[in-house]
Amino acid sequence: MRPILALTAALALVAGCATAPDSAPDVGPSRLIEDLRILAADDMQGRAPDTEGGLKARAYLVQRLEDLGVAAPPSGRLQAISGEVRRQSGTRQVSGANILGLIPGTTHADRYIVVTAHYDHLGVHDDQIHNGADDNASGVASVLELVRRLKARPPEHSVLIVFFDAEESGLLGARRFVENPVVPLANIALNLNLDMTARAETDNHLWVTGTYQNPSFRPLLEPIAPVDGISLSFGKDTPQDTGANNWVEASDHGPFFRAGVPFIYLGVDFHPDYHQPTDDFDRVRPEAFTAATELAVRAFRALDQGVN
Length: 308
Prior knowledge:
Blueprint: H1 7-17, H2 28-39, H3 52-67, E1 78-87, E2 90-103, E3 108-118, E4 123-125, E5 128-130, H4 133-152, E6 157-164, H5 172-179, E7 188-194, E8 205-209, H6 218-221, E9 231-234, H7 253-258, E10 263-267, H8 286-306
Parallel strand pairs: 3-6, 3-7, 7-10, 8-9
Antiparallel strand pairs: 1-2, 2-6, 4-5, 8-10
Helix pairs in contact: 1-8, 2-4, 4-8
């Protein structure tokens, strides 16, 4: 299912979008930071699936999509999920719901880019809230900013927005979606997955994983210039990348990859607050997060214009 590229025209388009930002109202960065703050606040209780905090986060995101004017797909706004998770302490049943939105494309209405980010996190353990500001309130907030831009300047492909639940429980939300897709998998041009976009200052990179598996994507993304010192970096997807340094199946893009759907994963590298109760909003540098989000938006535009 590798996409066919009209390379000559596509690369010309990419060169233009590599440096020119979208024309959209200036409220974007402040709303981006506010979405992150709200999702990573203590009253969300770490957003674990099927908890009061997880339900509160879900309600917030449903309302944000409504406020942005994003319609639900014909299948509905929510996709129920459930599954069994095995831990060292035993097996438990997890339930939750994916959140969906649909933005029609202007040119390729029957071809879809599925933009994803998981909204769950680890919840409360030992009386400590794991707020998951970077993992993954950040990716969700970045997707909401992309949605705002797409409403101001519609995409060429139709875009399915999916906020996955229960990623931390074994990619349950993504697995549910891929096994029961709301559009045929054959109609999905690619999955663009955002997971941890806030802490790019760790190495000044937003990492791009998936061009080893989908090499035709790389010439579309390479021309994208750095933003405020943060740049795209390609890797963590080759046979030489082993263990925790291989991200091909490290997040919700994994089930898409296994199903043969082309994917690109955008995320920052590990940092000391990863999966710790210290992954809080006040650890995020707004300028680095804003720059990484801008890179993600430009990456989407390049892929949207370059992929059939």
